[in-house]
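Possible race condition, two jobs.
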Amino acid sequence: MPYSKTKTSFYRRLYVAHLISAGVNTVPKIIELTGMPRRTVQDTIVALEELAINCEFVGANKDGAYQINDWGAINPLWIKGQLKHICKVLAYPAPE
C-alpha cells in the first residue's frame, strides 16, 4: 500500500525523535540503524521543531549528541506502541 509523502514525513520525524530519546542520538548512529542518507537525517532533526518537539544538540561536535527536551503535543508512548507500524510504513527493520 502506498503512503503519502505527508504521512511518511510525519512518521520519519516521530521515528527519529524516538530513536534520539532511546539513545540512538547522533547522526552516524541514526544513519547506521536506518540507512537514511546523512542529509535526510539532518533535515529530519531540524524539522522536529515543526512538530513542537524540542530537540537540542548537547556537547562538543565530536562527542556530543541530540536530546529531546520536550515532546510538545506528541505522546512518546503512542510512538512506542505504534513502532512496528511506523517502521513498516517507512520500510525500516522493525524493532525487536
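Job #2 (started ~2 s after job #1):
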Amino acid sequence: MLTKEIIETVEKDSNIQVNDEDTYWSIQVDNPCGEDFSFDIDKTEDNHDIEQIISYCDDFDPEEHAQMWLGGKGAPGMRQLLDNSDNIKESLNQLACQLRDFL
C-alpha cells in the first residue's frame, strides 16, 4: 500500500509528484515539453496500488504517446515529441524501480 513514507521517497530528487485524492492517486511527471502528463490509480483495488503504478509504468509506450500528440494543435515537432516521450518513460522506469523496493 502506498504510504506517506513511500511518496516522500519517490518524490525526493525526482520530477514525480504523487497527489492523494479521495478515491485515487494522481501521479504527475514533469517533462521537458511542459506537457501536463499524469495518470490516476484507483485506491479501491484491494490495496494493490503499488502494483498498479508499476504496471502502468511498465506498459507505457513512448512512441504511442508521441503519436497521440502528433499533429495536434500546438504540438511540438516529431523529434521533440519523441524526446519528451522518452523522458517520460525514463521517469516512469525510475518510479517503478523505486516502488519495487517497497513490495
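The CA atoms of residues 66 and 82 lie 6 Å apart.
Logs attached separately.
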